[in-house]
Amino acid sequence: MAIWDDIKTDNEIPDPFGGPRTSVAAQAKCPNCASNLIFDANLVKLACRNCGGVFVPDTLEETGNFKGRDTEAADKDDDRTEYVCDSCGAVVVTDNTTAASFCAFCGSPAIIKKRLTNEFRPDYIIPFKISKKEAIDIFWDWAKKNKYVPRNFINEDSLSKITGIYVPFWLIDAKCHTMVTGSGQSGAAVFVLDRQIDFATKMVPFDGSKKISNLLMEAVEPYDYEGMIPYKDVYLQGFYAQRFDESPLDMTDRIQSRMDAHARQMGKKLSIGEYDKVRINTADSYSGDYKQHYAMLPVWFLRYEYEGLKYTFVVNGQTGEPAGDLPYSPVKRVALVALEIAKWVGLGLAFTLLFIFVFVKALFIDVSGATVMLYYLSIFLSGFLGAGFSLIIRRIRKVKYDSMNPIDSAPEVENYLDLSEKIHMEKHDKFGYMKTTREADEDDNRNGLVKYMMKRSLRIR
Hints:
By secondary structure, the chain is α+β, with helices and mostly antiparallel strands. Among the domains are: about 5-65, no CATH class; about 80-330, no CATH class. Helices cover about 30% and strands about 30% of the residues. It contains seven helices and 21 strands. The chain has helices at about 130-145, 155-160, 215-220, 250-270, 330-365, 365-405, 435-460; strands at about 5, 10-15, 20-25, 25-30, 35-40, 45-50, 55, 60-65, 80-85, 90-95, 110-115, 125, 165-185, 190-205, 230, 240, 275-305, 310-315, 320-325, 425, 430-435. The strands form four sheets. Strands 9, 10, 11, 12, 13, 14, 15, 16, 17, 18, 19, 20 and 21 form a 13-stranded mixed beta sheet that branches. Strands 5-6-7-8 form a four-stranded antiparallel beta sheet, with no helix packed on it. Strands 1-4 form a two-stranded antiparallel sheet. Helix 5 (about 330-365) packs antiparallel against helix 6.
């Protein structure tokens, strides 16, 4: 079978300058199923939408497979029922003994019961370990930690609608190669980092549902894969399960983005032990040898409304890790901003009064000495007020940031390293230059200031 077939073998374009005739175009064919291959700019590979094969463009060597699953074929299992929301289109699957009275994703009661029409064949499942009561308790504990939330922002009736859902996840295995550049400092010596690292990741999760935020699903990771077992229908009893509506080939941008993040993390983690300071400037990476597993992972899901806006809360149904959106009270935010300003302005006034007192006392003892003291005190005071103003601005920004309830980022690469594969690193680091005594002193002073500010920040939280 020819790998490359001319689209129009008899349609040749003559060269206007008398050169040889050339074919218009050629289309790459999948070596496995002969379907047309499409270039995926995220993976920088050719991909087959029919069989899921991923290939190196130059050689058509297979470098992984995102095997497609048939979502159109009828499922002969009569022990499961499909519920479709007539409002938002969400589809969930459950056992015949569990009825749906409202949509967990939009809250609409317009739920239509249907016989399962599409296949539902997960490879694995992690059963729920967190009960509904425990999930509600976790919500209250989590919400109380945010001091900006308004009072009575949710009622018991809304909270009782928290729903246990098995979310479809694609667990992706890949081998990664990254090229890291940056700088490393050891004492006063600065080195240029130039490294190439090969490593493998295993079962990195990507949710296959468009209805649930990807950021929230990453925030409640990681799951303990020790608790993962082959899928059985019995675990659906009392819960719902979503069918995937995104395949791995639909999310190659997310896959490659996360692999790039893992590559940068690996570059820093493998370099930081050798130097006092490490700065990663670039980390160019690519991955291949993809493999996938289809699993159902447990999540408690709640969509609630406050003052016309909708908020989402999720809890990892195995570990109890929470994440979500919270409303904030503008009144509380303004009050805390005013408190921060009053605190630092008061401190500045106290220092100013102290300086005036010292100056006046020195004035009665030695006029010339008091003049010199006034000069240095004015310099110190101006510097102190400038630093205080900058600190107030930073604290106000932090109050605003905290009031928005920032969501945790995805776990770092060590949670998904495939330790059965060796980590290989080629080092081409070179000596750069020696820092001068002045530069080293500036670094020490800057680090001392940073440490002081960090300690001070911790005390005033």
